[in-house]
Amino acid sequence: MEKLLEMAKKVSDKAEVYSIGYTHNSVSFKNAKLHGIESKIQSGASLRIIKDNKLGFAYTRNLANRQELLQNAIDSLEGEVEANYDFPLTEKLARIDTFDPSLENVLSTQMVEESARVCDLLKSETDAEISVSSTTYTETIRVMNSCGTDISGESTFYVMYGSLVFPGSASGIWGAFLSKDFRQMPENILNEMIKLYTSSSKIVEPKGGKMKIMFMPNSMIALKWRISIGTSSKSVYEKVSPIANKVGEKIFDERITIHDDPLNDKHPGARAFDDEGVACKPLTIIENGVLKSFYYDLDYASKLKAKPTGHGHRTTAWGGDPISIKPVPALTHMIMEPGKKSFSDLVKSIDRGIILEGALGAHSGNIPNGDFSIGVSPGLYVENGEIVGRVKDAMVAGNIYEMLKQVVDIGDTLYPSWGTAWLPPILCDNVSVTTKN
Amino acid sequence: MFEKLRAIVSKVDADYADARYEIKKETVISFTGQDLTKIASNSTDGYVVRVLIDGGMSSVVFTKENDVEKALLMAEENAKLIAKTIDKPVKLAESEVVKDTFIPELKEDPREIPMAEKLELVRRCNNIPLEHKKIAMTRISYEEVIREKHLVTSEGSEIREDLVTTRLSGEIISKDGNLIQNVRVRAGGSDGFAAVRDQEKHFEERTAIAVDLLKAKPVQGGVYDCILNQGLAGVFAHEAFGHFSEADIIETLPAMRKKMEIGSKLGSDVLSIVDNPTIADQVGFYKYDDEGVKARPTQLMKNGNLTGRLHSRRTAGEFEESISGHCVAEDYRYAPIIRMGTIFIEPGKPSFEELITMLGDGLYILDAKGGQTAGENFTFGAQYGYLVKDGKVGEMVRDINISGNLYKTLKDISAVGNDLVLSKVGGCGKLQMNIRSCHGAPHALVKNLVIGGA
After folding, report:
1. Range of the domain at A341
2. Do B253 and A80 touch (CB under 8 A)?
3. Which end of chain B is more exposed for a tag (fewer CB within 10 A), N or C?
4. What is the CATH number of the domain that holds B187?
């Protein structure tokens, strides 16, 4: 890496080397039986050079041929991609606890035993078709640049997903558990899954219309995605954010507060620096319903004459291969403030409505506008405060900027949701539901 | 390279092993509005090894040659652990031993086109929508992916194949006050750079639709009879039906597996569906899959009867059905899984005009905007549509999202047109992305579709 940076400095005004190494071991159980084990040991390096305010970008899996990598970056300078920013000098970083060395020694046998235990427990309580996956992941990231930054960080993740699939479908009740070390899936998660599954086994065919909808961690992606796009500096720069001029204005119900809190190492996925070497710090996006800030990487901060917020990450909406992705503004550790109501209190407050456990098609539709129109997968139908069964062939549609003004209540428990977001259930009113009846 | 892979395979004490090495070359040129945001060519590489020991199968992926010993040890230990734990050993279906090198013939090799020419082509197309004052933004990219694959199996197969994919695609975003609309543009193929040339007319047509959408009304939610255009009916074939033809999905869902028995009458009489990765020049084209099995056309449904499904060697063994050559990986970072190649609804007799007359009142909806499926339920979006009254196409509508039940909808397809079109750009996310999975259909008349709306 040092050698590559030295070579790059000689042919450019500014240079940055990003490298990542990761190992991953994943055990999957399907239909409550061991199905497969996959392992990965991967690494790679990515180079950015800036010359005359133009960007060159290149990447490789190994540093066998530094000259070729450098030449690819030099060749891409010819495209004249504007880069009016400096790489940061980052020396001091917040101390955060993201790494548990014990995870590196976890054996496949331990993961198989734990997955089998979870399968047996779920099987003994339900007639569901059961899938469980258990994955250990260790990652090392290093960022060096021509300003003198040379920082690195190690992280460990352990994640277990369990699902209770309604027979005849592939939709069901999902539970997720994330941790920095290997430990048993907590019983309360499993018990919640069992309770939701058994209470919704009957199929009901309610009439459509406007009703209350409770977004659960798995369907929250429909909201999370649109909030992330709407508050991204990239959307602001591209003039496709409907809230571009609304900083300081109340855009949601006052109970909605959203932070991106990379330094919160209580949850796995915390980061002390972003993928461009900018020090991370907590950022309030929405506070009591008021839009407080957009989030920036180096590029869009320079384009919009703002300060980078430590949100330059090598990711896409679908994840992707970090070495081949140029940094873009991305939220990494989104946390929504929980409310005060327990899940069962929230259910009791629904006269007629749907608990949306999963959403189909959350990624399609007019996302920048905040619109969504999603299939229920599954949707648990509630009448007079009780779950009476599950709805099939129904769609829930709305616009987050309208709907999140009509919040009935927010749950008191944070759940991991789609990557490293931590969100509570949200109950909204007057949401449009289309059914076949 | 074969020699190196043979050495890896011979190091493993297994009943079966295969090793794949790939060099992946990517060129990307991206515009966001007037801004060129990315232009780069790069090459990466890596290995995937799969081992079968005593009926336990596992895989390992690695990128550094000096990790080979460690990687093989992990794969062996995991395979043995699986063998010890499962009650039914994995049995791979028989497959022909192949020694072949297949380099596709290209209409202009993209590797020989200078970057400056590629950039000029993308810039020219990107400027077409941007000249219109109602177009707020474009996101247009040229992407070229070349997989140079080498596969060696312990049974003696040695296959070298190149997959060359080009595409010029993205979205055009129109804006009027607070209303934002978007449509997609798509061109590309597996047969060379020529597939992305001469797209100016396509960009002009899509720009006009994006602008027209600003005046269209949102569709009213409800249950409609609909005509799906080729792009949308193709997505239905892929999302709603195709995924449940993939044996690895239904393998571990006992109730679905029972319902999807070969011979079951699941669709209407007019519905016949094939997956055929052997049609040269189509995006879904390949000669051998990533297990070294020769690709072959597979009739999945004939006149509404389930006639076949897509297999890997493992699932063909499990289901005791014929291998189909549909086990494909995104690239060297993944072990292969079952994927569609070119799935399409076979054409029927009625013309588009006849279908519209048959529809009478309903919606004519066009072009896909993302889809997803979960067992019997599916959802996908249409980019735009028109109200149809008394067999006449009327005003434009927007914000159309469809949801349905697989089994009901297969029976609700009441007519299939004579105008088959296959998609020019592929893309299917199923744990991995497969850019070589494409689809097609003629216009199709579908009854009782649930359309979400305010």
Report:
1. 202-437
2. no
3. N
4. 3.30.2290.10
Q: Which residues of B touch A430 (CB under 8 A)?
A: none
Up-side HSE of residue A147: CA atoms within 13 Å toward CB? 15
> What total number of domains does chain A contain?
2
3-class DSSP assignment, residue B256: helix
Please, what is the average pLDDT of chain B?
Answer: 94
Predicted confidence (pLDDT) per residue in A85-106, tens digit = 999 999 999 999 999 999 999 9
Measured CA to CA, the distance from residue B14 to residue A401 in angstroms comes to: 58
Q: Is A332 in the same domain as A271?
A: yes
Residues A190 and A213 occupy one common structural domain: no
A-interface mutation test, from B119, B183, B312, B377, most A Cβ less than 10 A away: B377
- Residues B273 and B196 reside in one and the same domain: no
**Helix-helix angle A2-11:A66-77, to 10 degrees:** 30
Whether B136 and A240 lie within 8 Å, measured CB to CB: yes
Residue B430 sits at the chain A interface (C-beta within 8 Å): no
- Is residue B159 within 8 A of residue B99, CB to CB? The reply is yes
Provide the chain B residues 268-287 that lie in CB contact (below 8 A) with chain A. none
Indicate if A27 and A140 belong to the same structural domain.
yes
Option in B36, B44, B256 nearest A81 (CB): B36
A92, two tokens:
């001091």
Domain boundaries, position B189: 1-215
- Same domain membership, residue A350 and residue A252: yes
Rounded-to-10 torsion of CA A370, A373, A378, A382: 80
| Burial of residue A101 (number of CB atoms within 10 Å: 0-12, 13-18, 19+) | exposed
With a CB-CB cutoff of 8 Å, which residues 236-275 of chain A face chain B? 238-240, 242
d(CA A132, CA A119): 7
B26 touching A (Cβ < 8 Å) = yes
Domains: count for chain B: 2
Three-state secondary structure call for residue A361: coil
pLDDT in tens, A244-268: 999 999 999 999 999 999 999 998 9
A9 interface with B at CB cutoff 8 Å: no
Does B278 lie in the same domain as B405? yes
Q: Is A2 at the interface with chain B, CB within 8 A?
A: no
Tokens of A55: 């960007």
B115–A78 CB contact, under 8 Å: yes
Asked if residue A425 and residue A292 are part of one domain, the reply reads yes
Which of these three, A156, A178, A195, is where a domain ends? A195
Residue A67 sits in a domain of what CATH number?
A: 3.30.2290.10
Q: Are residues B174 and B309 in the same domain?
A: no
CA distance B180 to chain A (A): 6
Q: In the structure encoding, which two tokens stand for residue A280, read together?
A: 């991370």
> Given A59, A170, A360, which is nearest B403 (Cβ)?
A360
A207 chain-B contacts, CB cut-off 8 A: none
Instruction: Quickly tell me which residue has 């040991």 as its tokens.
Output: A41
Which residue among A59, A116, A238 sits closest to B44, beta carbon to beta carbon?
A59
ipTM: 0.87
Distances (CA, A) of A285 to A10, A265, A337: 40, 19, 12
pLDDT tens-place values along chain B, 454 residues long: 999 999 999 999 999 999 999 999 999 999 999 999 999 899 999 999 999 999 999 999 999 999 999 999 999 999 999 999 998 999 999 999 999 999 999 999 999 999 999 999 999 999 999 999 999 999 999 999 999 999 999 999 999 999 999 999 999 999 998 788 989 999 999 999 999 999 999 999 999 999 999 999 999 988 999 999 999 999 889 988 999 899 999 999 999 999 999 999 999 999 999 999 999 889 999 999 999 999 999 999 999 999 999 999 999 999 999 999 999 999 999 999 999 999 999 999 999 999 999 999 999 999 988 777 776 778 888 999 999 999 999 999 998 988 888 888 999 999 999 999 999 998 888 888 999 999 999 999 999 998 876 4
